[in-house]
Amino acid sequence: MKARYLDLFLSVAAAILLGLGASAVVMLFLGKDPIAAYGLLASSVIRDKYTFADIFVKAAPLILTALAFAVPYKASLFNIGAQGQFYIGALVASAASLALGNKVSGAVGLVVVFLAAVAAGGLWGSFVGFAKAKFKANEFLVSMMSTYVALAFMNYLLRTALMETKHEYPQTDSFAQGLWLPLVVGGTRLHLGFVLAVLIALAVWLVIYRTGFGYRVRVVGLNPDAARLAGIDSRATYVATFFIAGALAAAAGFTETNGVQHMLVQGFNPGLGAEGIGIAILANANPIGIVFASILFGALKVGGVIMGQMSGIPASIVEIMEGTVMIFVILSYFARAKLEGSREKRELRRRMAQ
Amino acid sequence: MIQLLANALLMSTPLLFGSVAEVMAERSGMMVTAIEGIFLIGAFAGFVGAFAAKSLAIGLLAAVGSGLAVAALYGWITVYLKQHQVVTGTAINILVSGLCAFLLRVFFGVPIIPLTVEPLKRLPIPFLSGIPGLGPVLFDQNVITYAAYAVVPIAWFVLYRTSLGLSIRSAGENPEAVDVAGQDVNAIRFNLVLVAGAMGGVAGAFYSIGYLGMFTTNIIGGRGWIAFAICFLGNWNPLGALAGTLVFGVAEAVAISMQSSGGGQLVPNELLIAMPYILTIVLTIARRSFNVPGKLGVPYMKEG
Predict the structure, then answer these.
(1) How many cross-chain Cβ pairs, A to B, lie less than 8 Å apart?
(2) Mean pLDDT of the B224-250 span
(3) What pLDDT shows up at residue A46?
(4) Closest approach of chain A CAs to the CA of B197, in angstroms?
(5) Cβ-based contacts of A271 with chain B (< 8 Å)
(6) Residue A55 above 60 pLDDT?
């Protein structure tokens, strides 16, 4: 058991290094010095308090969208629609914040906005689970397509009902200050959303690993036949896990609108859903691992932008890093299975020799 | 009306390439979840090739080559290393999207006016294009669309009327039997992924150099996934895929013509844009009995 955890840790660490190494090769082809670039990336994120705190600002929504993939994944379901669920959450959070205006602010107002966003995202997400449970519709496709529908819906509302008062840009007015998520560290952008995301990750871990519901989800994921024989209603699991997934991604919409932007801007954070999937894979869908993997991706994002400004390497190198890291993590699954197999064989031989 | 149908065929072309490619690969047991990335890299490489060499043919070749390269990476990880197909595809799609955005900046910087190439011209076929009604719809299209006419019959013939097709279908239903018959299941699957990569590359290039004459990083915008969906909806059959693509082609052509004719006052533009995606959801829910290849998405593990 212990050796397996060591394998896991070492192989993920190796995968991250190899992924960054592969991105370094891309830089070399362009005649850029990757060592200087990575040095710049690392030193820039710790150069001041504001930049360092930004890592956690970026990590907060990533934690939530990664969880939105991870929870259905535990039931062997694929939620590719976190991006759309995120937009629905952001839309409802914005609509609620604008409706509340200055009338209700502070903790009560924020709780109302949060609950509205999470409920809407949950309902939006649970449609996918419902379609799967009731009509055996492929959840992969339905969730994927629902993102584009949500995007169109957002664009429509930003052109009509929610558009800012001057009617110039596809965005909303700024929210009343009373509905901004409070800052955790003064002089930075770090808001309560990161703390919220970490707490939610802990809660998800508890639910998945320490409750009867979580147990049923995992049984459905590992062996649907056994689940059926044990009297577990897998269809209820489909709806419930997708409700949770939608709610989680919508919570990210809330942290981004009320915590960072303080308004809704058309098509913001377009890569959040896909990056969430990458993070969930990197962390093997473990909620605690997801927190750390999100911080890593957050650091890459923050450092990548600064590196792009200072060294002339386009900031999209970060996406290449994320992609190569993910590929090497997948390769590390393969390597780990090999290691595991050979260790078991050695053990078997040792026992037989005795 | 004729213009609408001609546009519908035009917009169906890349989806037909993509969905038939997906059908072929899935019949062998391989979901090509990297299809969105393959479309995107095809669009990108096609544009870069056409722009640099001032030749659409070179662009097309570059698109095929890049599609093959991405498919080879995907196939290696999923077929030979037996890793999860959805997970691998997601990783590759992110990587490709980063790579295209990155290389676009590196090659072209931030141009003030968007860079363009002259898109593929229509090539009316003499006599045939003169047939009233049908002629302008079927025989006044570009070369890629003409090639698309051949894709379905060829795919159908290969799958159902050749021993190769039998091997492909068996690799998806009963790989053990293929193995016992002395054929290499993994090689069959890997090659089918490559075929899908080449066809997906062409499909992607259609958007950049066949139609728009330019490249943006969101040019594909989920159309790879629509091709993926059409494969499901078309019941893993090239003829079904043809029917599915025509439905989507008509939907897209209607959306385009309503946008340009000012129909936006009646129906919000965004609803028209969302139409193909809503249609996919509705059809996915409505299609009940699926003819899923038995071992779709399951890596072949040899006993022993």
Answers:
(1) 140
(2) 90
(3) 86
(4) 18
(5) 94, 97
(6) yes
DSSP result, B128-151: GGGSTTHHHHHSSS-HHHHHHHHH
Find the DSSP H helices in chain A.
2-29, 34-45, 49-74, 82-100, 106-135, 139-159, 192-210, 212-222, 224-229, 234-254, 272-282, 287-311, 317-353
DSSP A291: H
pLDDT band at B263 (very low <50, low <70, confident <90, very high): low
B117, with CB counted inside 10 A (0-12, 13-18, 19+), is buried
Question: Looking at the complex, does the CB of residue A142 fall below 8 Å from at least one CB of chain B?
Answer: yes
Please, are residues B12 and B147 in contact by the beta-carbon 8 Å criterion?
no
Chain B nearest-CA residue for A281? B87
- Considering only the beta carbons, identify the residue of B86, B102, B228 that sits closest to A317: B102
Q: Which residues contact A136 (CB under 8 A, 6 or more apart)?
A: B288, B290
Beta-carbon contacts of A341 under 8 Å, excluding residues fewer than 6 positions away, are none
Nearest to B101 among A145, A155, A319 (CB): A319
> What is the number of other CB atoms lying within 10 angstroms of the CB of residue A48?
12
CA A134 to chain B, closest CA, distance in angstroms equals 9
Q: Using an 8 Å Cβ cutoff, are B12 and B246 in contact?
A: yes
Percentage of residues in chain A with pLDDT exceeding 90? Answer: 56
pLDDT above 90: residue A129 = yes
| Conformational region of residue A105, where left means phi above 0, alpha means psi within -120 to 50, and beta covers everything else | beta
CB contacts under 8 A, A 68-87 vs B, are 78, 80
In this prediction, residue B251 has a pLDDT band, given cuts at 50, 70 and 90, of confident
Angstrom distance (rounded) from CA A180 to CA A174: 10
B262 pLDDT more than 70: no
pTM of the predicted model, to two decimals?
A: 0.89
Contact B236, B291 (CB under 8 A): yes
Quick check: helix, strand or coil at residue B271? helix
Q: Which of B300, B45, B60 is nearest to B190 (CA)?
A: B300
DSSP for A129-140, please give it.
HHHHHHH---HH
Q: Is the confidence at residue B304, as pLDDT, over 50?
A: no
- Nearest alpha-carbon partner for A293 in A83, A77, A66: A66
Q: What is the C-alpha separation between B264 and A314, in angstroms, rounded?
A: 38
Cβ contact B194:B104 at 8 Å = no
Search chain A and give the residue with CA nearest B79.
Answer: A334
Q: Is the pLDDT of residue B290 over 70?
A: no
pLDDT of residue B79: 95
Residue B212, number of CB atoms within 10 A of its CB: 17
Compare all CA atoms of chain B with the CA of A308 and give the residue at the minimum distance: B102
- Bridge partners for A265 per DSSP: A171
* pLDDT higher than threshold 80 for residue B100: yes
Residue A171: φ, ψ to 5°: -155, 170
Give the three-state DSSP class for B297.
coil
SS3 A102: coil
Question: From the list B81, B93, B284, which residue is nearest A142 (CB)?
Answer: B284
The C-alpha atoms of residue A287 and residue A70 are separated, in whole angstroms, by 8
What six digits make up the tokens of B32? Answer: 């090509």
- Partnered with residue A183 across adjacent β-strands are A191
Check B106 against A314: CB less than 8 A apart.
yes
